Inverse folding.
């Protein structure tokens, strides 16, 4: 069984949220776990850094109760193999005690909680626990961008990298990384710590391209002249720069389409159909600008992008509030296959 704290993560692997698996509500209260204790063997818990000790303790008790009749029922989690995946340097729990807290650190609490301590004990004083640390980074092949990730996670982002991100002049060439230059040019390496404007002028084309790629933060005001350019006015949709995720989604959709022997088309889609051909230019522009800044949870009525293909399995992240919810059973977390769609084009 695959489970995760967040519904979006669980659905990506056709799994369940921890609360649903436990048969609990958002506060952790509820009935027995939704599992078959006689058949359950392995549970994979993703985003373990977001799980607090109290929830993890309750999770262990409920799973153990369901599996108590198995031959290994006396062990933790009823003898099930529990694989916890995550990174404690990433997002912590929204509330409660994180699981990387040593149990002894809870003695100073004004109101000690035995449930919290039992959750921590499952991690810290569990003779059955084995730790495997993954050291190879496979998410990104851009060495500089990976170094920025690591520095930001530990709060050690250098002023030079900040200048790169904002497109400012730097005391190093555009491809500089860890005391070397990725262009492997001795002339560019000799430019380190010289005048910033002189470095930008004399660096090679490879360094210049790296510098432009590192310029990620490109904000501009609503009255910026770039909004008035033809490509901005004619575009059906503007979106924040998220090339890696978008490219991955397109590649996945293209593969799905080829496997299903369907045509692969790129078209403008909307979560809620609101695009009116008669909409004036100012309204269209305001819509595009709003899309750039709005929170994802509040973007139900704004244009969006998602690669789709006929036959592709999808899961709804919200209840459909129109008549389709009851007519077609379009409820939240329900898995369905795409059979077609409407286009304004």
């Amino acid at each position: 069984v695959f489970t995760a704290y967040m519904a979006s993560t669980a659905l990506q692997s056709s799994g369940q949220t921890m609360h649903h698996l436990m048969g609990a509500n958002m506060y952790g209260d509820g009935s027995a776990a939704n599992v078959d204790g006689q058949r359950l063997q392995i549970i994979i818990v993703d985003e373990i850094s977001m799980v607090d000790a109290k929830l993890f303790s309750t999770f262990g008790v409920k799973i153990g109760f369901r599996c108590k009749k198995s031959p290994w029922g006396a062990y933790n989690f009823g003898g099930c193999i529990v694989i916890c995946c995550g990174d404690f340097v990433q997002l912590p729990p929204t509330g409660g005690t994180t699981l990387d807290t040593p149990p002894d650190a809870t003695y100073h609490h004004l109101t000690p909680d035995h449930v919290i301590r039992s959750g921590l004990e499952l991690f810290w004083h569990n003779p059955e626990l084995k730790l495997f640390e993954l050291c190879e980074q496979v998410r990104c092949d851009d060495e500089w961008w990976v170094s920025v990730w690591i520095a930001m996670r530990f709060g050690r982002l250098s002023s030079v990298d900040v200048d790169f991100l904002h497109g400012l002049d730097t005391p190093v060439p555009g491809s500089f990384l860890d005391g070397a230059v990725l262009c492997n040019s001795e002339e560019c390496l000799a430019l380190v710590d010289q005048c910033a404007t002189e470095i930008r002028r004399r660096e090679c084309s490879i360094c210049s391209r790296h510098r432009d790629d590192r310029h990620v933060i490109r904000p501009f005001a609503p009255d910026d002249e770039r909004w008035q350019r033809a490509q901005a006015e004619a575009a059906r949709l503007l979106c924040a720069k998220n090339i890696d995720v978008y490219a991955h989604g397109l590649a996945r959709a293209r593969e799905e389409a080829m496997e299903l022997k369907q045509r692969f088309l790129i078209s403008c889609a909307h979560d809620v159909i609101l695009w009116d051909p008669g909409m004036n230019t100012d309204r269209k522009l305001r819509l595009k600008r709003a899309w750039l800044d709005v929170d994802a949870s509040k973007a139900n009525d704004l244009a969006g992008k998602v690669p789709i293909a006929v036959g592709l399995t999808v899961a709804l992240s919200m209840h459909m509030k129109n008549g389709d919810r009851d007519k077609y059973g379009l409820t939240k977390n329900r898995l369905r296959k795409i059979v077609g769609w409407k286009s304004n084009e």
